[in-house]
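look at this:
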Amino acid sequence: MTTSMSAATFKLAADAALSPAQQALEQQLLTFITEHRHAEQAGLFVIRGDAGTGKSAVLAAAFAKLQALSRQHDANPLQGTNNYLTVNHNEMLKIYKQLAADDPHLLKKDFQKPTPLINRLTKTNHRADVVFVDEAHLLLTQPDRYNRYTGQNQLADLLNLSHVVVVVFDTRQVLKLKSYWHANDLDPLLNRYSHQIFDLDQQFRVSADADVVNWINAFTRGHLQPLPSSPNFDLRVFQDGQPLYDLIRQRDQQGGLARMIATADFPYVVNHGTWYVTAGSLKLPWDKVNLTAEPWALRPETINEVGSIYTIQGFDLNYAGVILGPSVGYDPVSDRVIVKPAAYQDQEAFKRRNDLGNLDPLKVQLIFNSINVLMKRGRHGLYLYAVDPALRQRLLAL
């Protein structure tokens, strides 16, 4: 689905085509937009799918086609429409802006983060024709002063400010309480607005047999199964982090885009020195604050760092070396993977909310979600090291 040069992105290669399901989705989406762009009440189009099912690829392709029609000189039903694609993720926004440089019908201003877009449309009393929202599960569901968002729900705001909203949604990729979405949280909006839902279920990123994807899915729900073998996918468990890193470096030299990534289990304070991730005898720095226009995964020097869920979510790697930190453990009585929120270092993810009831099970789910994001980054291989000795030995026994 991607070029070898930019395999960390969701951009289709020049000679690649959307799958039949993706083609059907693109056509259905453009038809929906055409039918609803003049409606008084917004239309909502929801694309659902697990990590790696090509949601961003088809979204990028459909948006490029929409903008080409909008800016076409020949008359067509979508000519002159005012459209945006928004994503609440700095690294993915960089990729979208790079796409704009390669496509004559796209402009960098077409791509924005949701808060500035919402604030500007509100201030100018302007209504967009179409707003695409990638990673809509990252939209805020409460006010956030740090991000200068004063509303209650960014998706509800975008629906009020647009004729059509297209969202990519996966509740298993929610990573923070301030953007927490229950599985049924979309229902009130679906009941209120004219809508369509499209499910993508074909795995494009993980080029493995179903056994490997099923193993990852089981793990991220706490279940342990025998380690599957696949001729198309290299799945290994390591006794120590150093040989894992050595193999990642080797893979990176061979084909590029092999990186170390880890659960948010190691201390890190922005702009306060260098903070390290440890995995047995391995010690590497966390990813640095990236002020460049180049996404973390595409910068060669980041082979010497460990990426987080916030730098890698939404991206493809060729090989992913995943460090499962101290919050990920093992219960020998139930033979299950367990998580320990008290050991999770990303306490910003657990910033207190009073409207979600008991937060303990939600914190557990957020950690499992982060594991799901990390373990589905590698297209050709996944290498695992568990800091917890009991979990590490159980994984090696599998």
